[in-house]
Design a protein that fits this description.
The structure is a single chain. α1 packs antiparallel against α2 and α4 packs across α5. With about 450 residues, the chain is of the alpha/beta class. Strands 1, 2, 3, 4, 5, 6, 7 and 8 form an 8-stranded mixed sheet that branches. Strands 9-10 form a two-stranded antiparallel ribbon. The chain folds into 3 domains: about 80 residues; about 250 residues, 3-Layer(aba) Sandwich (Rossmann fold), CATH 3.40.50; about 100 residues, EF-hand (Recoverin, domain 1, Orthogonal Bundle), CATH 1.10.238. Helix content is about 45%, strand content about 10%. α5 links the parallel β2 and β3.
Length: about 450
């Protein structure tokens, strides 16, 4: 052990320092028979030789002791019984664009499919995940809705083709989108003109706002036998059997948080803290609810910043105590989120967001490359040149889906993804977009 070596080293050092310098030590190195032949010079030579040997031995012992200490420290660091488990990462991914996303409709629990663009986005999300150095996925969670399941399948197919291990996939009804009640299927812009704007804003932009409940005559009524059976297939063995009356007919974001929170506490967080990287493929508002479970410091005014763009991975990292880790150099954050986005869309949005508040106003669009190109008149980007008057305000209004006067990251990416290809080359995002493509 290192303690034994320390004692030996101490003994040898004390001997080398004084044991052989005393004059009476000289006779001990000469035999009694040859004592007369021992001269003071010979004695000094023998003592010097012994000192050299002892010094070399001492140095060797120090080196051995140092090596043993270093080896023991390495063992302590790598021994799983002696160190705290390093947590995994929680990767949140909203499904790719659906047909109703493109039509700007409230989707909720309606089982709408991905469109072609949504399938492309799922493939792009897989590329972003594969590009992340050292990332492995240990388990994947989805909702029981088809757009979530298909997005996960496309991502994991690409993951497997790239030679990565395909993780287990678990469907959970608690990851379904927030239930929009009677709003389900309505166009969001049209709803602004047919309903009280204050009610609509409260339903969409507060934790407690709850839309009117869905009636049995609604074409996407939730409490049918077919939908009930699909939900039951996504129940955990640990929870009580789902009853038909448990199925919501409307939800606030707070309701969705309670629903998702049980899954987070019972399955997702324990998996992450055990060292697993967990991919959750969900929906805009169910992931908003999940984020509010991860970050308890979020309030109503933060809600617009919590919306995830379609198929753009958001990654939470944790320390050994389970607290989120943020401000890591080289990662892109949009406050108030403690997670970082993959891809360059976040970087480009932050370049436009001059005041760093997580939302774009008309003046920030005025300073963007969209309006600069429109003012220059050098390129005709599908009508941008005709927008030189109040360019920033016009672009803000075009992208501001909830009419709150600013454009958050989710609205920006949604607006950008719907632009014609020639306009998307300016200020774009995604996995491979350039900032300005002059070949358009």
């Amino acid at each position: 052990s290192t303690t034994r070596f320390d004692r030996m080293l101490s003994l040898v050092s004390s001997q080398s320092a004084g044991a052989f310098v005393a004059p009476h030590a000289a006779p001990s190195v000469c035999s009694m028979h040859h004592r007369v032949a021992c001269t003071p010079v010979a004695t000094i030579q023998v003592v010097d030789e012994l000192r050299i040997q002892i010094a070399l031995a001492s140095r060797s012992l120090v080196q051995v002791a140092t090596q043993l200490k270093a080896r023991r420290q390495i063992q302590l660091k790598t021994d799983p019984t002696r160190r705290r488990q390093q947590p995994g990462q929680l990767i949140l991914l909203r499904h790719g664009q659906s047909t109703w996303n493109l039509e700007n409709r409230f989707t909720g629990w309606a089982n709408v499919l991905l469109n072609e663009r949504g399938r492309e986005e799922a493939q792009e999300a897989a590329e972003l995940l594969l590009f992340e150095e050292g990332l492995e996925i240990d388990v994947c969670y989805t909702s029981v809705l088809q757009r979530s399941i298909e997005t996960a399948r496309i991502c994991l197919d690409a993951w497997e083709v790239a030679g990565r291990r395909r993780p287990e996939v678990i469907a959970r009804w608690r990851l379904n989108e927030r239930h929009y009640g009677a709003l389900t299927g309505l166009n969001k812009r049209e709803a602004l003109t047919s309903m009280d704007a204050r009610d609509l804003r409260r339903w969409r932009s507060s934790f407690e706002g709850r839309p009117p409940p869905m009636e049995p005559s609604h074409p996407h009524y939730s409490r049918t036998v077919q939908r009930y059976e699909r939900l039951c297939a996504g129940c955990s063995d640990a929870e009580e059997a789902l009853q038909l009356t448990d199925i919501p007919l409307t939800e606030s974001l707070s309701d969705a948080k309670d629903r998702v929170g049980k899954l987070y506490r019972q399955e997702l967080l324990p998996a992450v803290l055990s060292g697993k990287n967990v991919l959750v493929v969900g929906h805009a508002n169910c992931l908003r609810a999940l984020i509010s479970c991860v970050q308890s410091n979020l309030r109503d005014e933060h809600l617009p910043s919590l919306g995830l763009p379609n198929a753009l991975p958001l990654v939470y990292s944790f320390n050994t105590h389970g607290a989120t880790v943020s401000d890591v150099p080289g990662r892109c954050y949009i406050r108030p989120l403690d997670a970082h986005y993959l891809g360059e869309g976040c970087v480009l949005f932050n370049e436009l967001d001059a005041d760093g508040n997580g939302a774009l106003d008309a003046s920030e669009f005025d300073d963007s490359e969209f309006c600069k190109i429109a003012w220059s008149g050098d390129l005709n980007l599908d009508g941008l040149v005709s927008m030189t008057d109040n360019c920033g305000e016009r672009l803000r209004a075009e992208a501001d889906n909830n009419a709150d006067g600013v454009v958050d990251f989710n609205e920006y990416m949604s607006w950008w993804s719907k632009l014609p290809e020639r306009r998307r080359g300016v200020g774009g995002g995604g996995s491979g977009a350039s900032r300005i493509r002059l070949d358009c």
